[in-house]
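Action item from last meeting closed. Structure (325 res):
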């Protein structure tokens, strides 16, 4: 797939939003809306998987192999660092158990012994449990004729959400994979279909959709309104659809730094919390003013991800003969 710079910029913005969310949480500020970066990531993921699979026609096995190459090694590295830090006492609130560690490496939902939440050892890895679930379902759908793939995945995910809304359960798979957030992958796939069929809206509508998405997030944040998947999912969908509409109406110009941050967005997402924790601890010990410390923590989180991308993610991908998409 030719580079869609608008999508790259969205990936960068989503990663930075999550960095802002965690830095603010660590330092006593409030930027809860930054969590919507995850919603944007999920819609973008559905879009990319659909477009690339349609253009490259991978087998189910080659699709999964490509996803594993791209996602697993660096995530395992970050998880291993977290475990090592916990063992030597760098993370005093982290409690480890063999079962939870294994579940974390295998992308299996499990309750953390630290707080009882359904989180892996590396907390932000909870989203990767959803990503891997989506990849497995998507790979299975590749066995079907093309015309049935979208409908099958869409109906399955919709059915799971209906089950989750109608029936309560303590089963971890039920709690995890019946959440409405899985519909964001389907929304991204739908945008991918429209993109390939050249049926996305025009430039003006695209700009309005982008404005609606960003404006909706801003209103939620500024007014302190409650937000969940039912509100943030559609806003993220509007943002992605608007962006690809602008791409289709003449393209989005390349800007080197945002494009690089888009490339590095996965590593930023994985590594930023380590840097934020270090900077926050050192900065508070040194008495640095909170606004300056907040800026420093965010910058450190982004920088840590950029370095991780250059030093770990790219070299790891290059170890494989085929490109990982």
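Sequence:
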């Amino acid at each position: 797939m030719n580079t869609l710079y608008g999508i790259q910029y969205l990936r960068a913005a989503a990663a930075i939003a999550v960095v802002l969310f965690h830095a603010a949480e660590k330092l006593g500020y409030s930027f809860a809306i930054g969590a919507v970066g995850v919603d944007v990531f999920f819609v973008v993921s559905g879009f990319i998987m659909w477009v690339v699979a349609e253009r490259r026609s991978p087998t189910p096995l080659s699709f999964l192999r490509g996803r594993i190459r791209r996602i697993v090694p660096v995530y395992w590295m970050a998880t291993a660092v977290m475990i090592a830090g916990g063992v030597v006492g760098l993370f005093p609130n982290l409690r480890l158990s063999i079962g939870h560690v294994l579940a974390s490496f295998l992308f299996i939902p499990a309750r953390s012994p630290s707080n009882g939440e359904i989180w892996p050892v590396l907390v932000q890895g909870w989203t990767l449990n959803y990503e891997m679930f989506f990849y497995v379902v998507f790979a299975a759908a590749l066995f079907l004729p093309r015309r049935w793939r979208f409908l099958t995945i869409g109906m399955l995910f919709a059915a799971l959400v209906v089950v989750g809304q109608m029936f309560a359960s303590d089963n971890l798979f039920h709690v995890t994979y019946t959440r409405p957030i899985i519909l964001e992958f389907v929304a991204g796939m739908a945008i991918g279909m429209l993109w390939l069929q050249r049926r996305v809206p025009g430039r003006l509508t695209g700009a309005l959709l982008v404005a609606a998405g960003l404006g909706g997030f801003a209103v939620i944040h500024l007014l302190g309104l409650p937000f969940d998947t039912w509100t943030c999912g559609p806003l993220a969908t509007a943002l992605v659809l608007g962006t690809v509409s602008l791409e289709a109406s003449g393209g989005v110009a390349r800007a080197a730094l945002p494009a690089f941050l888009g490339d590095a967005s996965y590593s930023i997402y994985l590594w930023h919390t380590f840097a934020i924790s270090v900077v926050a601890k050192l900065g508070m010990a040194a008495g640095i003013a909170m606004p300056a410390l907040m800026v420093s923590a965010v910058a450190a989180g982004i920088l840590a991800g950029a370095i991780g991308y250059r030093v770990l993610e790219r070299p790891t991908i290059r170890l494989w003969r085929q490109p990982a998409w």
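Note appended to the action item: The mean pLDDT is 95.
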